[in-house]
Design goal:
The protein is α+β, with helices and mostly antiparallel strands and about 700 residues long. It has 23 helices and 20 strands. The protein has a 7-stranded mixed β-sheet, with helices on both faces.
């Protein structure tokens, strides 16, 4: 028989427990009955409106001291506004004892509470409390895509401890230091994303810090210095860096900068790594993420969450993410069984670039690369770059000069389209003398194409500036194959060829293409639109949803930056010519693959220019990268693009549409204005498009 003291101690323990809130639906009912808005309640409790919304839909729970204040408020409202049909406890017990047992059918129809698994043994402190009496919506009953990551791939942490995740969820983060934040993220947050390939690795959780959150965690609000923003880092003696090191965590060689990666060595199969991005340190470049850094935390989480779902959880700049996506979709290793021991060990994954870096052939390298400096190479280099060409004014006809408009057409993600089904080399280059040209072998060929005749009103397909070659030069396979396609006899003098080949970029292309097309569709630009409706939709798509427009811009930047980063140049004032720079240690430092993509894109552009001239007699005024400018009788591409009698676009030329490789209107200017620019030596395409003509080589 327990003593009175033991019973009182047990009762006191119950009284001291945290108060239990009514079901989420009842919380909303009480607030509405009192005539209080969610915003007003948030102000009273010194929190955000989004937090109140999450409390009322069961996505999160408040913590003390807000929990106690919220409980007191709800109790007061419950006394003033009892729920309709509520009876006394005694009546409830009597009714329950008199009622017959519930039938099996009725039990089956009753909604069951949904338990969201946590990320590990410790459950997130903000999981929903008691189940709502309101039947849960169907989407809430669906299990998470991966039970290990119930709260999505990332969260945006604000200064009040609210961590805004994807899908509108808000977690309460108690961390007051970077070390505590890392521990909370790995143990309690439930953040992360599953691997994109069965042989790959899960994506590490990303925590984005607002300026207020950075200050709360002891970081400076801004990084200041004379160097470029992307090169700035916290000094090694900064208190936060010391805290991280003291807690046995590590930073990558990039240090604690706008994209800080904090990790410990892998123990067994458990990865311990958190990616941080600091908004006020310009982690989200305005060119790639227009307007995102100025958005509210919940909107930032939405933008990055959609990008993570459709592309990859950001690991740095869009260029870095583009490169990481290649590796995530083509992992360098897979599990193979050791025939001697029977153990499963990492082995080469066919079709990947492997785990070891590979030196390029001398003509594929850059002038400062060790293979060039150490060998004294002087045989020239590949010059496979995008077009920067303007037609000589003297080649304009009187009829062209009288047309009132110059219209710019831009190919949707032209370099992504070029990556489709692109066969590239996977092995080291073999040096060959006087080889027979084979268009199926990727490589670099020394060949003289100066004798190839091309209409002077079109750019040469063999040079970025569109001028005619003057003698032997190095070309990528696609460029030489196009010369053969034009009916020319090609006789290479030497070549560097790769015998092991594969369509390495195929999964990368497919994922980014789907992301691009799906995001355009969310902005109202769908594949079923006719050309007129497509142009109208493209004109207003950026105003439909700024968040989705930012996702679209990031996807496009991921394509260009990822390809450009295949040939990342040395950075920093301390670099000396001939030294190896960090990018060379990556298996993905492959300038030959970059050259193959750009070569194919430029050849695709010239093929369309040639076909347009044959079908319509129209010749371009200028070409800048993936933008071409034509003289036009009207201010729309519909005024000069070739259409069949049925109204369908003629194959082979430029076609309008949202798919990568198809065209969209990029700008309209006065034809007199364009001719005036050409006389001054400017490229009208640059003024119409306003973008760079080269692929960004990343950060």
């Amino acid at each position: 028989m327990p003593s009175e003291e033991e019973l009182f101690a047990s009762v006191d323990a119950l009284l001291n427990e945290e108060p239990h809130l009514p079901p989420p639906a009842e919380r909303a009912r009480l607030r509405e009955a009192a005539g209080i808005t969610q915003a007003r309640l948030a102000t009273a409790l010194k929190t955000t409106t989004q937090s109140v919304k999450n409390w009322e839909n069961g996505r999160s729970e408040p913590k003390s001291p807000r929990l106690d204040a919220y409980q007191r408020l709800l109790n007061g409202w419950a006394a003033k506004y009892p729920a309709p049909g509520v009876v006394s406890a005694a009546a409830t017990v009597a009714a329950a004892s008199a009622a017959p047992a519930t039938s099996e059918v009725e039990s089956a129809d009753a909604p069951e509470p949904v338990d969201v698994p946590g990320a590990g043994p410790a459950r997130p402190a903000t999981l929903a409390g008691p189940a709502s009496r309101r039947p849960a919506p169907k989407k809430a009953a669906k299990p998470a895509a991966d039970p290990r990551f119930p709260h999505g791939p990332l969260a945006v942490l604000d200064g009040d401890g609210s961590a805004y995740g994807t899908g509108g969820i808000v977690l309460d983060c108690p961390a007051t230091s970077v070390v505590e934040l890392v521990e909370w993220t790995l143990k309690e947050s439930g953040l992360g994303a599953p691997r994109l390939h069965r042989n790959g690795k899960d994506s590490d959780p990303l925590i984005v810090l607002t300026a207020a959150a950075a200050v709360t965690l002891g970081l400076p609000e801004r990084l200041e210095g004379h160097e470029q923003r992307r090169s700035l880092r916290l000094p090694e003696d900064h208190p936060v860096v010391k805290q991280v090191v003291k807690a046995k965590w590590r930073l990558t060689q990039r240090g604690f900068g706008p994209w800080a990666r904090i990790y410990r060595k892998v123990q067994g199969r458990e990865r311990q790594c958190v990616q941080l991005a600091i908004l006020s340190w310009d982690a989200l470049d305005e060119r790639s993420w227009p307007g995102v850094a100025q958005m509210e935390p919940a909107d930032v989480a939405r933008v990055l969450g959609i990008y993570a779902q459709r592309v990859i959880t950001p690991r740095g700049s869009t260029a870095v993410s583009g490169l990481e996506l290649m590796t995530a979709l083509r992992p360098p290793t897979r599990a193979v069984q050791d025939p001697q021991t029977g153990n499963w060990v990492p082995g080469h994954n066919p079709g990947s670039l492997g785990t070891e870096p590979m030196d390029p052939a001398p003509p594929e390298a850059t002038a400062e690369h060790p293979v060039v400096v150490d060998s004294g190479w002087s045989g020239g280099f590949l010059n496979e770059e995008a077009y920067q060409w303007v037609r000589d004014v003297s080649l304009l006809t009187d009829e062209e000069c009288t047309l009132p408009y110059a219209v710019g057409l831009d190919l949707n993600t032209a370099f992504l389209a070029a990556a489709a089904r692109l066969v590239v080399g996977l092995s080291a280059p073999d040096h060959c003398h006087a080889p027979k040209f084979n268009p199926k072998i990727p490589g670099s060929w020394l060949v003289d194409l100066s004798h190839v005749e091309v209409d002077p009103r079109l750019p040469s397909p063999f040079t970025p500036d569109g001028t005619r070659p003057t003698g032997p030069a190095w070309y990528q396979t696609h460029t030489v194959a196009y010369a053969q396609e034009l009916g020319c006899n090609v006789a290479p003098l030497e070549a560097y060829l790769r015998r092991e080949t594969g369509a390495y970029l195929d999964p990368w292309h497919d994922r980014l293409k789907n992301a691009y097309v799906d995001t355009l569709a969310d902005l109202g630009v769908t594949r079923d639109l006719d050309d007129g409706a497509f142009l109208a939709a493209m004109e207003r798509h950026k105003d439909v949803d700024p968040a989705m427009a930012a996702v679209l811009a990031a996807i496009k930047a991921t394509v260009k930056g990822g390809i450009g980063k295949l040939r990342e140049r040395p950075q920093g004032k301390k670099y000396k010519e001939g030294e190896r720079w960090p990018a060379l240690q990556r298996p993905t430092w492959r300038p030959d693959i970059r050259a193959a993509v750009i070569s194919k894109a430029r050849i695709n552009m010239h093929r369309k220019l040639n076909n347009m001239a044959k079908m319509t007699g129209l010749y371009p005024l200028a070409v800048l990268s993936d933008c071409v400018v034509y003289p036009s009788p009207g201010d729309s591409p519909l005024d000069f693009l070739p259409y069949a009698a049925s109204g369908k676009p003629q194959p082979g030329g430029f076609r309008l549409g949202p798919t990568p490789g198809l065209a969209k209107l990029e700008g309209v200017q006065s034809m007199l204005w364009a001719v005036d620019l050409m006389e001054q030596g400017y490229n009208p395409a640059r003024h119409i498009k306003g973008g760079d003509a080269v692929l960004d080589e990343g950060e």
